[in-house]
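Our collaborator T.R. sent over the components below with a one-line note: 'Predict the complex.' Nothing else. No constraints on interfaces, no templates requested, no preferences about which chain binds where. So this is a plain run: every listed entity goes in together, and whatever single assembly comes back becomes the starting point for the next discussion.
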Amino acid sequence: MRFVDSFLEGVRPIDEIIKYAKIEGEVAEIDARDLKHKELNDLMRECVLRGARKLILRNVCGQRYIGTRLFFNPGVNVEIIIYGTPGNDLGAFLSGHRIIVYGNAQDGVGNTMDSGEIIVHGRAGDVVAMAMRGGKIFIRDSVGYRTAIHMKEYKERIPLLVIGGTAQDFLGEYMAGGRVVLLGLNLKNGKHKSHYIGTGMHGGIIYLRGKVEDYQLGKEVGVVDMEQEDWKFLENIVEEFCGHFGNEIKVDKDEILGGKFMKLIPVTKRPYGKIYAY
Amino acid sequence: MKSHLLPDFIVERIEDRCNKCGVCVKQCPWGVYSWNDDKTDILIDYTKCVGCQRCVIYCPNNALIVKPYYGSYRPNSYWTKEVILDIKKQAEQGGVLLVGTGSDRPYKVYFDHILLNASQVTNPSIDPLREPMELRTFLGRKPDQLEIEIKDDDIEIKTELYPNLVVETPILFAGMSYGAISKNAFLALAMAAKEFGTMFCTGEGGLPKDMREEYGPVAIVQCASGRFGVDPEYLNCAAAIEIKIGQGAKPGIGGHLPGEKVTAEISATRMIPEGTDALSPAPHHDIYSIEDLSMLIYALKEATNYEKPVFVKIAAVHNVAAIASGIVRAGADVIVIDGFRGGTGASPKVMRDHVGIPIEMAIAAVDQRLREEGIRHKCSIIASGGIRCSADVVKAIALGADAVYIGTAALIALGCTMCQKCYTGKCAWGICTQDPNLAKRLNPKEGAKRLVNLLRAWSLEIKDMLGGMGINAIESLRGNREHLRGIGLEEWELRVLGIKGAGE
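Returned assembly:
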């Protein structure tokens, strides 16, 4: 059996691929059409090392880990504009950068993301915001399965995920912190179809606009009344959401806030404290 | 409900030696000893004793003896005392039985059925005291071939090499998280690793920020399913990154660090709120296949600019060889295989005692499989789970490992007496606890000294065994099964281990 390393095989050195980048001052434009995963990330890193702070990527088609390689100590913050479809693990372990995608994203957006911002003008695949620990993600449309699994928070570091549409099953499973806002803007009858919402949840808050039945919720999560501060929080978030996507979705802030919201929180911080014999 | 459980231990006091100094009252965290009302006598409630021997060691008058409680039920080799007591405990508490440390079941110990070779007449043995003996080990992917250029007297390697770890002895400290063990125990492991020239694995509880600069270069940082404390700086400060898929003591299940152990400092390291349960899901929810594993391996390589080897740790299970092959193909630089004797701070007893396979079998099977597929050089193998002595290290390497992890042995060096109560958080030896009064019993400097002594002792012994075989580098021992013979093993066992029987 031949050993194939599909990820590294045929990766060209920087000298050979630098021609795909045009660097002018702080702005670099990269044509990703012919670049492999690692080549694109090599090139992005090279551009930043050469002084670029805004990267415009065109013809992106499935390249993985965009933004992941840009960890520098001390940190620099880069804006990454993506045209096309970035591949899996967009912004995995992201540290402080801002990524804007004009198109759809695939699986693993913001995987174990540390800080920064990801804005997707389209939909995203499975495991969005898995183990996210800081920063913000805005998705204009819907997301796939297993969203915000084990998102966590610490003191003032509270990650935020806002989804314009709906999510598939296992939303917020094992969630340990952070805020997830599901706006349900594309629901036909106002009902979310996701099951097992918040199974094993032991921290954080999920806000849902639209309806879910009790049987769709995990048994570790409870529905509580919205309070003044929740509305204040949502007002800010929805305003930010409309700032990003208002022109595209044709719905205004008041219309969104006029909908019916549910607030889900864990029943206990210790869901599995009582299953052991000592 | 009246408890029907028998005591585990009994405490005997030699009355004419005891001068009622009260050290035992202070030392015992289990509540065995207490003063009577007018403080003239010390009362003993031996039903609370776990047999940790702390009081015995610290009694200044050597007045105490702690021994297993000998009272028992009618002898029965099927319904043993342990079986009966487990049933009673579950009938009273209605929960999953929790235990600490690796399995204590009397399964066959293959290490004890393997004998080593030595040179006699036909090839000379080597005296490690007088001749060079190489224990230095390189961990990571090796190239398919090495291109060199000879310029005058200089040899230059042209091939681009993969990042490798260098350790001065093939023994590393296994992943034990800060949270499961105390900061002092964690620090002792880091200090010892640094001093001796080996590495320690952080486990999944993160690496405290104040340790990153000094001990990052000798740390293998773990990225487990809970992703606790995983930030880009954590990944980049380390020598290597380990994706933890499974653990020998509890293959296939996650972990629950109870909220009461999540103190302020632990919450800062794990980056979760104080007092919250730290739940590690059973699988990584972004890994449901080898392809997904590959995605995380490369995500970590991307996050660290391809400068660090990525380890993948799995429990030794039935199809370990095929799984290992997939892991190498997914891009891992090192595979850690944790046998069913692997230790733990807390595991359901049923998982610890009934799931997995012996490390000896797993190593042999994986090494064999990777050689057959021509990809053995693409990764290093670390054997973990129940390595008790230098002979176990040598046997594991001869069966096909590059190096070993030690966890339990390291903790025993620090003071652990294998009382198996790690999950209570009351460790009398200051190891498996977050209680500041207990944790301070372990002085990290003294602990590090004990660990360094252990590494030195085992390394000397390994050199002796190698020299006896006529080998002068640990690398020449790897997978060298000609130096092993089985004793008391069946045909199939010899076949799986890939060794001959004694006398063959």
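Summary for T.R.: The first strand of chain A starts at residue 21 and ends at 24.
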